[in-house]
Amino acid sequence: MKQILIIGGGPAGCMAAIACKKHNPTNTVILIEGNLRLGEKLRLTGGGRCNLTANVSAEEIIKHTPRNGRFLFSSLNNMDPHAIMRFFTERKLKLKEEDHQRIFPTSDKAEDVVNVLENELKQLGVQVQLSTLVSAIDAKKKQVKTNKGSFSFDHLIFATGGATYPQTGSNGQSFELLKQCGHTITPLQPSEVPLVSNASIIQAKELQGLSFKDVSMSAYVNDKKIIQVTHDLLFTHFGLSGPAALQTSSYLNDAFKDGNKVYVSIDFLPQVKREKLEAQLKSKLIEDVLQAYGIPKRLLQVLKTRASLDIISIKQFKLELHGTRGFTTAFVTNGGVSLKEIDPKTMRSKLVPWLSVCGEALDINSLTGGYNMTVAFSSGYTAGLMFEN
């Protein structure tokens, strides 16, 4: 019998504890969480509705993981998006699919997702220690020191998240403990984060609050196209938000430095070809044509006042970017434990035999829209599986 200690009560940590106890019930499994309750950050995902996965293949998850996606091949083989959906539906949580293959609980309540995890942990007999803050790791004694005393372990799983939403406890401090264990931490940067623009049209707040469904947005660095994303977009008082902006940010982590010119080109009507618009303008006013396609009147008025209202301004609206909103509003951390030091088949450390790392603590950056949550569940499950008899 082994005593397995898991630090972090998010999706990765909960799934690691569940897999560990389920596949080897003789283990004593202890889950340590610093907050008053489990899944604090998970409760915020999807606008509080919890976009828990996407109804796509494992290959699509890898494709939508800009940083180190191939590392996930083995863990996704253990638990892919369809296995995640089965896990929850078998435990009586009804799910629904929305646009872009996003999966949510039918109730639209992230709390219901957390309840499934909590009930499973309880039924399996996992010991959950809440409000327990880790301060140090004694490698020689194999003990974790906390504000509630020391916990001994035979194996330790880090599922502590990254450095985003620090108010939930995911503040990056655990990376210092991992460094002390001998691991390399690659540079940490905010990803899946709103984009900031100092352009006058943004600073004047003339577009603030305008939202668009499935625009096509291309990002450029020094006139080189980096990525093109088609998704929903929101103009804010500081720049751009919404899924299109968040996903684009994942490809611009190193762009805002050294005087680079970074900008996006937005096609507000990607489903309508330019030739079709030109043909319609021969007999109709441009305002009438564009409003018929759902372009907000306020956008048309701003374009008409500030520049020129024409097809180019609708199909190639350019906006210079100057940075991101940082870790406090980022959904994902870019960077983490170097994957050269982790076995992808087990999530076990190659440097420390009694240590495993899973979830966002790893140097993996997957997109929102269910992809990042899938990586958390999948890598956590794999970390727990390594104890199967």
List the helices and strands and how they pair.
Blueprint: E1 3-7, H1 11-23, E2 28-32, H2 45-48, E3 53-54, H3 58-63, H4 73-78, H5 81-89, E4 95-97, E5 102-105, H6 110-124, E6 127-129, E7 134-138, E8 143-146, E9 149-152, E10 155-158, H7 174-180, E11 189-191, E12 195-196, H8 200-203, E13 211-221, E14 224-235, E15 239-241, H9 243-249, E16 262-267, H10 274-280, H11 286-292, H12 297-306, H13 311-315, E17 317-321, E18 323-324, E19 332-334, E20 355-357, H14 371-385
Parallel strand pairs: 1-2, 1-10, 2-6, 10-20
Antiparallel strand pairs: 3-5, 4-5, 7-8, 8-9, 11-19, 12-15, 12-18, 13-14, 13-16, 14-15, 16-17
Helix pairs in contact: 1-6, 1-14
**Which CATH architecture of the largest domain is right?**
3-Layer(bba) Sandwich
**Helix-strand category:** alpha+beta
Unreliable parts: none
CATH class of the largest domain: Alpha Beta
Strand order of the largest sheet: 17-16-13-14-15-12-18
Average per-residue pLDDT, rounded, comes to 93
The main pleated sheet reads as: 7 strands, antiparallel
Q: Based on DSSP secondary structure assignment, what is the total number of beta strands?
A: 20
What spatial form do the alpha-carbon principal axes imply? elongated
Radius of gyration: 23 Å
Under CATH, the homologous superfamily of the largest domain reads FAD/NAD(P)-binding domain
Strand portion: 15-25%
Distance between the termini: 11 Å
Give the count of structural domains.
2
Number of H/I helices: 14
CATH topology of the largest domain: FAD/NAD(P)-binding domain
Portion of residues within helices: 25-40%
